[in-house]
Amino acid sequence: MQVPITQDVHTIPRKLPESDRLNLIGLTRDALRAALIAVGTPEKQARMRTNQLWQWLYHWGVRDFALMTNLAKDFRATLAENFTIELPEVMTRQVSEDGTRKYLVRIAGGHEVEVVYIPEDGRGTLCVSSQVGCTLTCSFCHTGTQKLVRNLTPGEIVGQVMLARDDLGEWPEKGAPNDPTARLLSNIVLMGMGEPLYNFENVRDAMKIVMDGEGIALGRRRITLSTSGVVPEIARTAREIGCLLAVSFHATTDEVRDTLVPINKRWNIAVLLDALREYPKVSNSERITFEYVMLHGVNDSDDDAHRLVALLQGIPAKVNLIPFNEWPGAPYTRSSNNRIHAFAKILMEAGYASPIRTPRGEDIMAACGQLKSATERQRKSRAQIAAEAGL
Ligand code: SAH
Ligand code: SF4
């Protein structure tokens, strides 16, 4: 993240080349305040100016300093001389027959990530990426075949939400009520590319911006962070973000989970479950979502379903059963519909909600695990994945 210079330095406003101007998108309130002071805003005005600017950026979605009419003209000029308001650039936009929208966006350095908007009855969910590629190598995940290129900055993460709101035409009109329950983009899932808990600070700062009541104002229960199980960061997520948690569980024995989600070798099922047991208490959130990808003959037996029920004991949980999205060269196939329903029935009879995720946007390859990008060029060889996953 670009951090502005120390708070008490007063620089004389001067025109900087665009590339040297600081992008305001993604700065926390404190960083924004410090940036304003650094360009000469008197300290005693800085809080008020920060609030005003914040509302223009995140409540109204304004991108041009000249339109920020409650700021003095010379202050607007100072802003324009020193700062920019930039989002990742939308390269392509595809709309599926079912209304799912997929954006391929370009970030600094020419990297590309995907953002997916999924409309549902009464709500709409945006699937946001946190990294280009992923350091982890889950053997069923397409992103896991791509090397980590870099972490996204807070601006690139919050920028995904803002560009989707642009496309949905969802910034409030002057005078119109700002009712989060009536929004097209009402929920966020951190389930795109990358492991959000390996980019903790940037994800946290971005989500703080998204949750801020004077801006985009999506409540913490409308955000779900999905992790493969980075145990040390789970309690921190509860304390510092407080959003809902989903965990890529996918197996009921360490032996199988070691191959599917290799981070299990570091923090195994028992250790992960201990951390999850504490999560709802600390974050005051409701249930934890257990994501479970259905892989034919690997993790989809009745015994697995019964073991899963036993493991979930004592944790407020729901299970999302995800039919495997096959990708070219994947070492697995999708469980049959009958198998998935039989598995779901065992969970339901034990009292767990276990919805089966309907594949969305299949015609535009918008499914999780199929999110791909220019980083494909750096794809690992299949042999390397198999070796790393211990297959
Ligand atoms: N790294 C995080 C979040 C991104 S993956 C995590 O692993 O949780 C988002 C979800 O998509 C995870 O539950 C992941 O296991 C699942 N997923 C990945 N590839 C998939 C595939 N090919 N089919 C179905 N689900 C997949
Ligand atoms: Fe990374 Fe998540 Fe894919 Fe695993 S499932 S490789 S953690 S993106």
Summed up, what is this model?
The protein has about 400 residues and is an alpha/beta fold.
Structural account:
It comes from Jannaschia helgolandensis. S-adenosyl-L-methionine binds at residues 194-195, 226, 248-250, 325. [4Fe-4S] cluster binds at residues 134, 138, 141. It is an enzyme of class 2 (transferase). The chain starts with 21 loop residues before the first strand and ends with a helix. By secondary structure, it is α/β, with parallel strands linked by helices. Strand 9 (187-190), helix 5 (200-211) and strand 10 form a beta-alpha-beta unit. The chain folds into two domains: 18-84, DNA polymerase, domain 1 (Orthogonal Bundle), CATH 1.10.150; 89-381, Aldolase class I (TIM Barrel, Alpha-Beta Barrel), CATH 3.20.20. Helix 6 (234-240) packs parallel to helix 8 (269-283). The chain has helices spanning 29-38, 43-59, 73-82, 154-168, 200-211, 234-240, 254-260, 269-283, 302-312, 337-349, 382-388; strands at 22-23, 83-84, 89-95, 101-107, 111-120, 123-127, 131-132, 150-151, 187-190, 223-227, 244-248, 288-294, 317-323. A nine-stranded mixed β-sheet has the order 3-4-5-6-9-10-11-12-13. A two-stranded parallel sheet has the order 1-2. The structure holds S-adenosyl-L-homocysteine (SAH) and iron/sulfur cluster. The site of S-adenosyl-L-homocysteine (SAH) has 16 residues, from strand 10 and strand 12.
